Amino acid sequence: MKKRIGFIGSGNMASAMIAGIINARYSEAVDVFASNRSIGKLLDIKERYGVQIAENNVSVARNCDIIFLSVTPDMYPPVIEEIKDFIREDAIVVLIAAGQTISQNEERFGRKVKMVKAMPNMPVAVGEGLTSFSTNEFMTEEEIEEIKTLFESFGKAELIDESLMDIASAVGGSSPAFVYMFIEALADAAVLYGMPREQAYTVSAQAVLGSAKMVLETGQHPGKLKDDVCSPGGTTIQSVASLEENGLRAAVIHAVRANMNTIGRK
Ligand SMILES: NC(=O)C1=CN([C@@H]2O[C@H](COP(=O)(O)OP(=O)(O)OC[C@H]3O[C@@H](n4cnc5c(N)ncnc54)[C@H](O)[C@@H]3O)[C@@H](O)[C@H]2O)C=CC1
Ligand SMILES: O=C(O)[C@@H]1CCC=N1
């Protein structure tokens, strides 16, 4: 039987997941339900993907088989209080909020609930996402496979130990923002030297896409791949030396640490 998929909170991340599952034809629009605090975003999502606007959060909770809690972390307590008596016994609740744990939220439901903690990222919207996930003990092997298949419809999925979820959130969930900054900076430099802006984004973004694909598909160490680009006495090694002098690696590691510190991790 077709599963009904619901999103409680339909902001940026929910919209990206809806785009991912509809574009991948994982679900028909008729089986996808979205609720939100305000109507504007729902009308936009409805217009773009044809999905169902739910009357309210409780209606998503009552009617859906897989329910994404896609509100911000501070809204978890009130939203769970609102829906906890309406989630069916066989439904699966998916937490996607940064820093939220399975045990914390099991406690909020106060009863046995099938639960998944997942950390998707924005590129799910174009079928190239990464979703790290863990599950609680009430999920059967079949349900774990089912949820993995859903995540794989819009990218890769990694079943990980829940203790690694926060770092997966920083390095998989937040990192697209860092990468966009890198692409934007590369493009700014191209524009500085006269390249038209649109062309600069194409060149920079494709260079990042291709480099990531090389790491994933060749299995070679990123350091070796970097070395291969640096011709002896050439131009690239000059840039690499400059990036080292300016602390690129340290800046990235500090950025990840700042992310972890935000959710109370050292
Ligand atoms: N933006 C991202 O790349 C990622 C976000 N996440 C998680 O997704 C969650 C949502 O993040 P975003 O989409 O970025 O935020 P957002 O602010 O774009 O979306 C949250 C939505 O929830 C709605 N909302 C607030 N209170 C509500 C309520 N009581 N009932 C129904 N709807 C309500 C808001 O109107 C808003 O549209 C967060 O918990 C975040 O940690 C996870 C992975 C990546
Ligand atoms: O900024 C945030 O809190 C969320 C978590 C991962 C990406 N965005």
Task: Describe, in plain words, how this protein is organized in 3D.
This protein is of the alpha/beta class and 266 residues long. It has two domains: 5-160, NAD(P)-binding Rossmann-like Domain (Rossmann fold); 168-262, ProC C-terminal domain-like (ProC C-terminal domain-like fold). 53% of the residues lie in helices and 14% in strands. It has an eight-stranded mixed beta sheet with strand order 3-2-1-4-5-6-7-8, with helices on both faces. α7 (165-192) crosses α8 (197-218) and α7 (165-192) packs across α11. The longest helix has 28 residues, at 165-192. Bound molecules: 1,4-dihydronicotinamide adenine dinucleotide and (2S)-3,4-dihydro-2H-pyrrole-2-carboxylic acid. 1,4-dihydronicotinamide adenine dinucleotide binds at residues 8-14, 35-38, 41, 57, 70-73, 75, 79, 96-98, 119-122, 173.
List each distinct ligand once. 1,4-dihydronicotinamide adenine dinucleotide, (2S)-3,4-dihydro-2H-pyrrole-2-carboxylic acid
Distance between the termini: 45 Å
What's the CATH C level of the largest domain? Alpha Beta
Q: How many individual helices?
A: 11
Count of discrete structural domains:
2
Mind telling me the CATH superfamily name of the largest domain?
NAD(P)-binding Rossmann-like Domain
